[in-house]
């Protein structure tokens, strides 16, 4: 087992370098030169600009620039006063040592810090979505398998396909309009509510100073975003679960259990369910971290202050260091998600030979 | 001529059937029979064909059938509701005819979906067959590249690339195509891997078939059914991706209409003119729903084992 984990982690190393190369290459194509962006101030003289360009290394060939970004340049001599000769050591530590440069927009702040401030919000949302999505999906899938071919099974198929085909932001908007506008107005004459929205329409907590209260005090802020983003996972997992359950229920040990006279509840829940869940573990990691990518949309429409929204804001304001950091961190998390899923699978299923 | 021939064929089949023969059908004939009895899939195909025709004849429909004046915009007649005079589906925030924009937007949205899906499928097939057939270092490299590409959250990658390029429909097709091939590749690679050991491939090789011929004449046609299923799902996924990008403001830029950017543009005016939000969203959902249903139906038709 340990050897398997170590091997799986070692495999992540080339992937990590691949990610950094792709991200760096794409950002190199970015319009607007970073020197011009950093020296927007008209009082800066041309020679200072050139000095900055050399210091940042924007004129170096691609692989040198990439290496300086990756492992830093404090080990190499750079030309700091632009006289054509190298004279001092670089002062950049490189992303491998946690130096992602500094944000253009939030002057001088470390992008890693910006991200770690936001990561909590995203993870909180994603854990809730995973819980609701997996539990809801398993229940619907189980029922559909038990009721195979009957009305519930058929309608759950339609629901699952529909859940996959709705644009998430459109569904979110419909939910917002329903809970914030249509229902309150319709129910006000009947003495329910006072015409104000039933649920908070966005944000993570009331706008107060000193950060958000603990999570149990602001659960109602999570209801809409979680339900909206759980639609896709519920739809997907109900299909996985149904297929896995049907496959399990046709195996020999289930027939044995039936022959021994177990109640059908005992067969389905006791023997079937537990074995049917195992193959689904593979999907858990990708789900958990796949949500990080999708969170851009949910966080944007519900103004949820997570890393998706940070990425969006940084892209809009062309804050390249923060953009690159969010993409690299998001990718590492996704990669770890896949690894975690493989390890979980091996842990849960003793039949997997390592 | 053709009808005559198929009538003869059917008569022959009937004759054989009466003689106690059951004619054996090939994979596609069997699948076709199953699809013929699968009402939801047939309905989805009909709806989709309808949308495709509407999009195809957008100029004719808009100018001749509904007699919309596309040149002069009346700023006074903005936010007209549904079923207004001269504008069956109302007008938008600039007084443009909503129906015409939906028709033209459908052309671009469906076009992007189909073209990008075909492109990514094409790349996926070629790369997948090569990786599965040759194996070795090339396979490892391709695998490494795919794992890497899949580790970067898809939407992140799309967002940073589209901000850099501010895409036209054509560049968006290229971007989707170049980023979206890994799923197909993985599928094709696995299938190729198992097919290449079968007897008929060995037979083809014994008869002097080149690698090239074996890959594209013997292997690819055998996974064709899988590819049709993948295609219909890929088109759906890409239409959704286009709308998500448009919602974030990174997709095809207005005034070129796509269902995605019409929907995201309409969000601002949701209170004044709700039809600007409902209709494009409904069209996207219906289209993708039909595509996914067809994908499901095709899978069941080609491989009834999975469909219990």
Protein structure class of chain A: mainly alpha
Which word captures the global form of chain A? flat
Helical amount of chain B: over 70%
Supply Rg of chain B.
24 Å
**How many H/I helices of chain A?**
13
* N- to C-terminal distance of chain B: 40 Å
* Percent in helix of chain A: 55-70%
Write down how many β-strands of chain A occur, each being a DSSP E stretch of 2 or more residues.
2
Structural class of chain B: mainly alpha
Order of SSEs of chain B: HHHHHHHHHHHHHH
Instruction: Summarize the main sheet of chain B.
Output: none
Indicate the low-confidence ranges of chain A by residue numbers.
none
Query: Which geometry of chain B do the CA atoms define?
Result: flat
Q: Mean pLDDT score of chain A, rounded? A: 80
Oligomer class: heterodimer
Explain the overall architecture:
The complex is a heterodimer of chains A (354) and B (308). Chain A is an all-alpha fold and 354 residues long. Chain A is built from 13 helices and two strands; from the N terminus they run H-H-H-H-E-E-H-H-H-H-H-H-H-H-H. Chain A has helices at residues 2-28, 34-38, 46-56, 62-71, 111-146, 151-165, 168-187, 219-249, 252-259, 264-277, 281-301, 307-316, 320-348, and strands at residues 77-78, 88-89. A two-stranded antiparallel sheet of chain A has the order 1-2. In chain A, helix 5 crosses helix 11 (281-301), helix 8 (219-249) runs antiparallel to helix 11 and helix 9 runs antiparallel to helix 10. Chain A is flat. With 308 residues, chain B is mainly alpha-helical. Helix content of chain B is 72%, strand content 0%. Chain B is built from 14 helices and no strands. In chain B, helix 4 runs antiparallel to helix 5 (98-134), helix 5 runs parallel beside helix 8 and helix 7 (154-165) runs antiparallel to helix 8. Chain B is flat. The mean pLDDT of chain B is 83. Chains A and B meet through helix 1, helix 6, helix 7, helix 11 and helix 12 of A and helix 6, helix 7, helix 12, helix 13 and helix 14 of B.
């Amino acid at each position: 087992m340990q050897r398997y984990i170590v091997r799986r982690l070692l495999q992540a190393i080339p992937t990590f370098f691949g990610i950094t190369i792709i991200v760096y290459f794409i950002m190199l194509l970015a319009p607007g030169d970073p020197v011009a962006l950093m020296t927007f101030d008209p009082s800066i003289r041309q020679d200072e600009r050139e000095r900055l360009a050399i210091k940042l290394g924007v004129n170096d060939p691609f692989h040198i620039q990439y290496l300086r970004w990756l492992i830093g340049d404090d080990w190499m001599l750079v030309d700091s006063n632009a006289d054509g000769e190298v004279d001092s050591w670089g002062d950049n530590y490189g992303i491998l040592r946690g130096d992602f440069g500094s944000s253009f927009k939030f002057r001088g702040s470390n992008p890693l810090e910006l991200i770690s401030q936001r990561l909590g919000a995203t993870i909180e949302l994603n854990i809730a979505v995973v819980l609701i999505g997996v539990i809801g999906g398993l229940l619907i899938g189980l029922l559909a398998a038990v009721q195979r071919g009957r009305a519930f099974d058929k309608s759950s198929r339609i629901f699952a396909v529909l859940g996959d085909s709705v644009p998430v932001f459109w569904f979110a908007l419909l939910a917002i309009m329903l809970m914030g506008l249509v229902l309150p107005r319709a129910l006000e004459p009947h003495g329910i509510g006072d015409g104000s929205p039933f649920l908070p329409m966005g944000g993570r907590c009331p706008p107060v100073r000193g950060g958000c209260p603990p999570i149990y005090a602001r659960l109602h802020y999570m209801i809409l975003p979680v339900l909206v983003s759980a639609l896709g996972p519920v739809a997907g997992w109900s299909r996985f679960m149904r297929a896995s359950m049907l496959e399990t229920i046709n195996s020999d040990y289930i027939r044995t259990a039936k022959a021994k006279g177990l109640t059908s509840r005992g067969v389905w829940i006791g023997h079937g369910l537990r074995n049917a869940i195992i193959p689904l573990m593979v999907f858990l990691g990708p789900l958990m971290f796949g949500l990080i990518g999708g969170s851009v949309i949910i966080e944007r429409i519900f103004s949820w202050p997570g890393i998706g929204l940070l990425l969006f804001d940084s892209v809009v304001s062309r804050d390249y260091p923060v953009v690159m950091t969010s993409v690299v961190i998001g990718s590492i998390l996704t990669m770890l998600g896949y690894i975690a899923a493989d390890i979980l699978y091996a842990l849960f299923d003793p039949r997997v030979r390592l | 001529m053709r009808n005559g021939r198929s009538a003869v064929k059917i008569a022959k089949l009937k004759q054989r059937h009466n003689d106690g023969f059951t004619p054996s059908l090939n994979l596609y004939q069997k699948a076709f029979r199953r699809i013929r009895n699968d009402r939801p899939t047939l309905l989805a195909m009909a709806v989709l064909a309808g949308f495709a025709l509407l999009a195809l004849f957008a100029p004719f429909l808009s100018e001749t059938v509904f007699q919309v004046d596309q040149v002069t915009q009346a700023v006074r007649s903005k936010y007209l509701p549904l079923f207004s005079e001269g504008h069956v589906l109302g007008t938008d925030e600039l007084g443009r005819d909503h129906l015409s924009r939906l028709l033209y937007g459908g052309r671009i949205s469906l076009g992007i979906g189909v073209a990008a899906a075909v492109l990514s499928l094409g790349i996926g097939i070629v790369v997948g067959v090569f990786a599965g057939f040759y194996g070795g270092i090339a396979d490892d490299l391709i695998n490494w590249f795919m794992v890497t590409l899949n580790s970067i959250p898809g939407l992140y990658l799309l967002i940073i690339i589209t901000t850099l390029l501010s895409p036209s429909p054509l560049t968006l097709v290229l971007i989707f195509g170049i980023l979206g091939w890994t799923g197909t590749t993985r599928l094709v690679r696995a299938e190729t891997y198992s097919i290449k050991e079968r007897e008929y491939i060995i037979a083809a090789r014994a008869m002097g078939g080149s690698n090239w011929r074996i890959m594209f004449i013997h292997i690819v046609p055998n996974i064709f059914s899988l590819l049709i299923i993948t295609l219909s799902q890929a088109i759906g996924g890409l239409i959704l991706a286009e709308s998500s990008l448009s919602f974030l403001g990174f997709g095809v830029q207005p005034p070129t209409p796509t269902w995605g950017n019409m929907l995201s543009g309409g969000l601002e005016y949701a209170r004044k003119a709700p039809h600007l939000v409902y209709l494009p969203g409904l069209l996207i959902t219906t289209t993708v729903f039909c595509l996914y249903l067809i994908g499901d139906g095709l899978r069941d038709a080609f491989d009834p084992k999975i469909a219990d």
